[in-house]
Amino acid sequence: MLTLVIARHGETTHNAAGRYQGHCDAPLTAAGIAQAHALAERIAPLISQDDVRYVSSDLGRALATAAIALPGRAIRSDRRLRETHFGRFDGQTHDECLHCDGVAYRAWLEDPIANAIPEGESFDSLEARVLSWLDEQPRHGITVAITHGGPAFILMSRLLHISFAAARRIGLEHGASVRLTLEETGV
Length: 187
Known about the structure:
By secondary structure, this protein is an alpha/beta fold. It has one domain: Phosphoglycerate mutase-like (Rossmann fold), CATH 3.40.50. About 45% of the residues lie in helices and about 15% in strands. It contains seven helices and five strands. It has helices at about 15, 30-45, 60-70, 95-110, 125-135, 150-160, 165-170, and strands at about 1-10, 50-55, 75, 140-145, 175-180. It has a five-stranded mixed sheet with strand order 3-2-4-1-5, sandwiched between helices. Strand 2 (about 50-55), helix 3 (about 60-70) and strand 3 (about 75) form a beta-alpha-beta unit. Helix 6 crosses helix 7. The longest helix is centred in the first third of the chain and has 18 residues, at about 30-45. The chain is globular and about 50 Å long. The relative contact order is 0.24.
């Protein structure tokens, strides 16, 4: 049996400003640092056990959250847990995306699964890389994964047997986590 803790990084300056981050990075805000400390408190009982693995997206905001939430732990980074690459929309606000390429942006907002981001990553590509990470996870012990919204919702969707849209509606705030137990035959 595997216990998988999926945690979202703390708030960043881009999040606070309403900017898409994708693969670009921004530092944690004071609120993001506080969220990482609160995450540490919530998961402390789990990480004091044996057979625990720690992994983070290789992007700075996830690594910074992991360093605060998992002090003194050996944290492996994995680029498959990165956020979606937002292409032309990386670093842009909603209004800037509308100005930059309103037609493509509206199409992506309407259906992010069917409509790829210009010069960015398709949903199928994101899903394939995140699920390749999941498929490699041992089915025993505990894995704590610090990641981003997109990958977290894909993992929740797959493991809870719900749509991606339903996982997004459930949500996962910055610095929050969800704990799932996987049996050999499923969740």
